[in-house]
Design brief:
Structural class of chain B: alpha/beta
Largest sheet of chain B: 6 strands, mixed
Largest interface: A-B, 25 and 30 residues
Low-confidence stretches of chain A: none
Oligomer: heterodimer
Largest sheet of chain A: 10 strands, mixed
Distance between the termini of chain B: 18 Å
Order of helices and strands of chain B: EEEHEHEHHHEHEHEEE
Radius of gyration of chain A: 31 Å
Low-confidence stretches of chain B: 231-236
Number of helices of chain B: 7
């Protein structure tokens, strides 16, 4: 086989300029695809990291039905103390769970005693919450990064609208499950960066303060946010939690808990999927470029070498061997283009990363575009190009193999 | 025992509505180790006859046997195998592969057809290059050597698989007289040393004189042997 590849390479080099031109075309295609995949992958990871590490956590567990009414943050769909205990037990025993944070969420009114607006309150245990969403302190634009009882984190959006400053007194008023209205004064201890979507009105207070406002005396909570130790094993861990919870509290044969990964919790997943679809079409375009250019070269190669094909057939070369020879030429063209493309991508990556190109996305500003040669993408794209190059040579190779030697020898 | 037996072999081509008879009921026998030429003007059917003997084409009618095989009974793959095992070809235009060196051109049938191991390939190629006097040019490409040298390389390539029969279509047509005689001598020498049968088409009188048996073809028919020395026969 090595000998056939050597001959194939020699055959490609007989039309050096044409071979280099085609290989360059493939190389440019490979470079653009790898750069796009790398940049979009880096953007996706950045966004997923921002969303999961600054707000959602990797996995959340609610009572079944809660997510359908999430806009109103219904208190009647909170997890009951017995369910919370079961959930705590399961999460403590599940391998791969790094930490988890109970949250009590409810809609409330925020007043600066001059005007009021609505706010979504997250009652959390600060130490547990920062263990699950480590970027929360990083979202503090000004004020104290340590949340104490009697203090409130106000989202930037509301702070600006109500002209709130650190140390200001505000009142949080909420209606509990029984319809009783209660209010409590808080000191604004931090103004936090808002996030895109409904989370833009999320404020934080201590879990005990949240229970005081709602006059909750037991351990009920709205949700538990979970962080896994290895993000690549997110789905298996979620499945393990689902499995373990399904064995416990089930009412009327129906599971009580609703376990979702970040993908089931944020609309960003649609953008992420759109990027995946774009990446798919970009790969399709690369396939088309490779297919057309290699097929064109190989068709020309067959037409230019008809007498030669006749000669090698006459001396006894089997049709399958002739076919292999031309397939190897397509294969080698793919190898040349891919190799050059990977080198070019490496060079482009160095340049892009050294330029530190920044961009904004939603309310996220100054994100740095980073690219890199990801081994799995390089392997996938290389395989695609090499396989397509070889397949593109299939029809011309078949034509060469099917030629009658007597006709080919007589070709002028 | 004849190496080639042709009985009433005809070949008819269709050119649109017209039928062209390239060979018309040709009969002859060729014995092993003979040196046979077919002479005739252009269009007389020499190349067609060589193509049939080379299992590159099938007769329209009649019976042709090459080394005990009837070509029209072979599949494409079997025909290729048969050619690789038993036949060697020398072409008027040499038909060397331009991207391969002299050594590689001669090695090509061993590599692509016989799949011989590298050591054996090297030995056989070097032996033949020495026999045809092309050892010094082994690393040169066809574009770097003369017409006579190209034809000597072509002779070496035809013989490297140790075939029983070598078919040469106008092997001296593109060579000057001196070079043509050298190539004919070389083929003669190879026949004597290796016991290979040489059959060639020509209209070159020098080549005709060198042949032991010469058949004259006119309009697809064999007239009669011009000369016959031991090793040939005519059923016609």
């Amino acid at each position: 086989m090595a000998d056939i590849l050597r001959i194939a390479l020699r055959n490609l080099m007989r039309y050096r300029r044409r071979t280099y031109l085609t290989a360059s075309l493939i190389a440019v295609g490979v470079t653009f695809v790898l750069l796009f995949l790398s940049a979009s992958g880096s953007f996706q990871n950045l966004m997923i990291g921002q969303i999961t590490d600054a707000m959602l956590g990797h996995i959340q567990v609610h009572k079944r039905g809660y997510m359908a009414s999430i806009d109103s943050l219904p208190l009647n769909l909170n997890l009951e103390p017995e369910e919370v205990r079961q959930l705590t037990r399961v999460l403590s025993q599940t391998e791969g769970v790094s930490d988890f944070s109970p949250r009590l969420k409810f809609p409330a009114m925020l007043s600066n005693f001059m005007e009021t607006t609505n706010i979504r309150i997250n009652g959390v245990i600060p130490r547990r919450e920062t263990a699950v969403i480590p970027l929360l302190p990083g979202r503090v634009r000004e004020g104290n990064t340590r949340l104490l009882k009697g203090e409130l984190y106000v989202p930037e959006l509301l702070a600006r609208g109500m002209q709130l400053k650190i140390g200001d007194l505000v009142a949080v008023i909420a209606t509990n499950e029984d319809g009783l209205v209660n209010g409590k004064k808080f000191r604004v201890s931090a103004i936090i960066e808002s996030v895109t979507g409904p989370g833009g009105r999320d404020g934080y207070m201590h879990l005990e303060d949240a229970r005081d406002i709602l006059r909750i005396t037991d351990d009920q909570i709205s949700e538990v946010a979970i962080r896994v130790s290895d993000f690549s094993r997110l789905e298996p861990v979620a499945e393990q939690i689902r499995h373990r919870l399904a064995g416990g509290a089930a009412r009327n044969g129906r599971p009580v808990f609703d376990v979702r990964t970040w993908e089931g919790l944020t609309p960003f997943v649609n953008i992420s999927r759109m990027i995946d679809v774009m990446a798919f079409f970009i790969r399709l375009m690369l396939i088309a470029v490779v297919l057309v250019s290699v097929m064109n070269v190989m068709i020309m190669a067959v037409y230019e070498r008809i007498r030669e094909i006749g000669t090698i057939a006459a001396i006894g070369t089997k049709p399958s061997r002739i076919r292999t020879l031309f397939l190897c030429e397509g294969f080698m063209l793919g190898i040349l283009g891919t190799g050059a493309g990977i080198l070019l991508t490496g060079l482009a990556t160095l340049i892009i990363n050294s330029l530190q190109i920044s961009f904004n996305f939603g309310r996220q500003a100054g994100l740095i575009l980073t690219t890199g040669l990801e081994l799995n993408q390089v392997v996938l794209v290389s395989l695609i190009v090499i396989v397509v190059s070889t397949l593109a040579a299939l029809q011309p190779a078949h034509k060469a193999a099917r030629m009658k030697p007597v006709d080919a020898l007589g070709h002028v | 025992m004849s190496l080639i037996i042709a009985k009433n072999v005809s070949k008819v081509y269709r050119q649109g509505e017209t039928k062209v008879t390239a060979l018309d009921s040709v009969s002859f026998q060729i014995a092993p180790r003979s040196f046979v030429s077919f002479v005739g003007p252009s269009g007389s059917g020499k190349t067609t006859l060589l193509n049939l003997m080379g299992i590159l084409d099938n007769p329209t009618s009649g019976r042709l046997e090459v080394a005990g095989i009837q070509p029209d009974r072979l599949t494409r793959v079997k025909a290729a195998e048969f050619r690789g095992e038993n036949l060697g070809f020398i072409f008027q235009d040499f038909n060397l592969i331009p991207v391969l060196t002299v050594f590689e051109n001669v090695e090509y049938p061993l590599l692509m057809v016989k799949r011989a191991p590298q050591k054996e390939r090297k030995e056989r190629v070097l032996d033949l290059l020495q026999a045809v006097g092309m050892t010094d040019q082994r690393d040169q490409y066809p574009s770097q050597i003369s017409g006579g040298q190209k034809q000597r390389v072509a002779v070496a390539r035809a013989l490297v698989t140790r075939p029983r029969l070598v078919l040469a279509d106008e092997p001296t047509a593109n060579l000057d007289t001196t070079t043509a005689l050298r190539v004919i001598d070389l083929m003669h020498q190879m026949r004597d040393e290796m016991g290979v049968t040489f059959v060639f088409s020509t209209h070159d009188p020098k080549v005709v004189r060198a042949a032991e048996t010469t058949y004259t073809l006119t309009d697809g028919r064999i007239d009669s042997p011009l000369s016959q020395k031991p090793g040939g026969g005519n059923l016609g």
